[in-house]
Amino acid sequence: MGTRHTEATKQISYLSGALKAPRITEAASRLADHARDANWSYEDYLAAVLEREVSARNASGAELRIKAAGFPGRKTLEDFDWDAQPALRQQIAALSSGAFLAEARNVVLLGPPGTGKTHLAIALGIVAARHGHRVLFATATDWVTRLSEAHQHGRLPGELARLRRYGLIIIDEVGYLPFEQDAANLFFQLVSSRYEHASLILTSNLPFSGWGGVFGDQAVAAAMIDRIVHHADVLTLKGASYRLRGRGINSLPSTKTTTEQTTD
After folding, report:
1. Mind listing the pLDDT tens digit for each residue in 79-111?
2. Same structural domain for residues 183 and 219?
3. Which helix H or strand E contains 164, and what residues bound it?
4. Of 64, 79, 113, which residue constitutes the final position of a domain?
5. Which domain holds residue 7?
6. What gap in Å lies between CA 96 and CA 72, rounded to an integer?
7. Is this model's pTM higher than 0.85 or not?
8. Interatomic CA distance for residues 106 and 198, integer angstroms
């Protein structure tokens, strides 16, 4: 019995290596005694061993996808301050199922600086990675820089095609800096290339009515917004910046456009 057991263990180790699934050896050894004591069938034992391998592989793959996404930090839904944004809890919980990714829907997070838009964008990106989706994160300015470089080297169509293979792209800080016309056109191409194909998450400190000033062209802004919100969940965050708490500052300068301010 001992010799047969040793030979079987060696065979499992060899076969696990050949399959590039070395964790099977550990799982098989760890579960063997329990399987015998509990009178598991061969099928139950095999299913349990393979389940451990799949779970470990998924966790490892998710971690690699999270690291490759380019997040500026690791933020989760668990550590978000829901007391500051209680109205969003149910909507975010629904989004965390990942169904919006399968439907190629977008998520837009609007609100003043410091209210948690980027935190939620990163957290949903991490959820997407754990659901098996490839994710890329960058600010709107960085995305335009990336596309501009591709365009200058004649690689823009290829770059847009490559980005379509990502299940989720996160565009942070739309509206913090205005774009020149060429940059606005590149941004529009990025949005258009993903329309009804793959998901975007965008954050902005401006309402949609202020995007015309960011992109320098009301028509371009309108066409872009139309594509973004056609299949989208638009969430509005409210309140003062969490960065100002305890500093005796209750608000930041208004993020409304000049036109909006004069018409209030």
Report:
1. 999 999 999 999 999 999 999 999 999 999 999
2. yes
3. none
4. 64
5. 2-64
6. 20
7. no
8. 8
**DSSP labels for 201-244?**
EEEESS-GGGHHHHHT-HHHHHHHHHHHHHTEEEEE--S--GGG
d(CA 170, CA 143): 10
- Residues 119 and 243 sit within 8 Å (Cβ to Cβ): no
Name residues whose C-beta falls within 8 Å of residue 119's C-beta, 6 or more positions apart in sequence. Answer: 75, 80
Structural element, H or E, at residue 75: none
The DSSP output letter for 112 is: S
CA atoms of 14 and 38, how far apart (whole Å)? 27
Q: Supply 162's token pair.
A: 């490559």
Domains in the chain, number: 2
Q: Rounded CA gap, 182 and 242, in Å?
A: 35
* Whether residues 101 and 151 fall in one domain: yes
Sort 86 into a burial class: Cβ within 10 Å, 0-12 / 13-18 / 19+.
Answer: exposed
Which residues, including other chains, have CB under 8 Å from residue 42's CB and lie 6 or more apart?
A: none
Residue 202 amino acid letter:
L
Domain boundary (21, 49, 64) is at: 64
- Could you read off the pLDDT of 12-30 as tens digits, one per residue? 888 788 877 877 888 888 8
Do 95 and 210 lie in one domain? The reply is yes
Same domain, 74 and 52: no
